[in-house]
Specification:
With about 230 residues, the chain is of the alpha/beta class. It is built from six helices and nine strands, in the order H-H-E-E-H-E-E-E-E-E-H-H-E-H-E. It has a four-stranded mixed sheet with strand order 8-7-6-9. Strand 4 and strand 5 form a beta hairpin. The longest helix is centred in the N-terminal third of the chain and has 24 residues. The relative contact order is 0.12. The N terminus is likely disordered.
Length: about 230
């Protein structure tokens, strides 16, 4: 389940000539984080009830307000946890200007428990090859994704291929080029290590699976270098 913060509160789009209202940014990230967690504890019974009844949309507005008060450029999601039942993710999408707020938020977070775990960036899925993405009438299994990677010291250029790309429009192909990488590496590692990302129209020679790609990228800190596969 995923609830992103950006959502229009009006039925009609704003007049493009109207200036975007200035959004308040708290001066002290630590104080803003403390205020967030106080609000989270107050809201938690409502969140638990909504999730338990399969209706997370019931608390979307309240959570949007809570996250926006921490910083207006933050996004959030409610996910299935890796170790806990649920996960709350609050992310600045690796924007360095809002990193102090996510750092303060994570530092003030309660310890993970059996019910909740907390992440300040979108984490990788345990096994991306078990994920199937529905795009309209198309079902895209990440197990069929292949990548070719060129390593340049501590960054990687990547071409991504899936046999179903030929059936997708340009926007969907773009989505399915980046989504498998984020699912495999997580938001933070992908931002740190990936440099150029391209869509491959045909499967490149020597392409590797997503799990092999994860092992490659995670090994960069240990001095991995060179090429895996060949550019298409």
């Amino acid at each position: 389940m995923r609830l992103f913060r950006r959502k229009s509160t009006t039925a009609d789009p704003p007049d493009p000539r109207t200036a975007w209202p200035e959004q308040h940014v708290p001066e002290d990230p630590a104080v803003a984080a403390e205020t967030f967690w106080q609000g989270w504890y107050d809201l938690l019974p409502m969140v638990s009830a909504a999730l338990g009844e399969g209706e997370p949309h019931r608390v979307e507005h309240e959570l949007c307000q809570l996250v926006e008060a921490l910083h207006p450029r933050l996004h959030f999601s409610l996910e299935r946890g890796r170790r806990s039942i649920y996960a709350l993710v609050v992310t600045g999408q690796e924007d360095p200007e809002v990193r102090p707020y996510t750092d303060a938020w994570r530092a003030a977070a309660p310890p993970d428990d059996a019910i909740w775990e907390y992440h300040d960036s979108v984490p990788p899925v345990p096994d991306p090859t078990e994920v199937t993405v529905n795009l309209g009438e198309h079902r895209i299994s990440l197990a069929d994704v292949r990548v070719v990677a060129q390593v340049d010291e501590d960054v990687v250029d990547v071409a991504v291929f899936h046999p179903g790309f030929r059936d997708l429009d340009e926007a969907a192909r773009l989505t399915m080029t980046f989504l498998p990488l984020d699912a495999t590496l997580g938001e933070r590692l992908a931002a740190e290590r990936l440099r150029r990302v391209e869509t491959a129209e045909t499967e490149p020679a020597g392409a590797i699976t997503l799990l092999e790609f994860r092992e490659l990228v995670r090994g960069l800190g240990a001095g991995t270098s060179g090429n895996v596969g060949a550019a298409d």
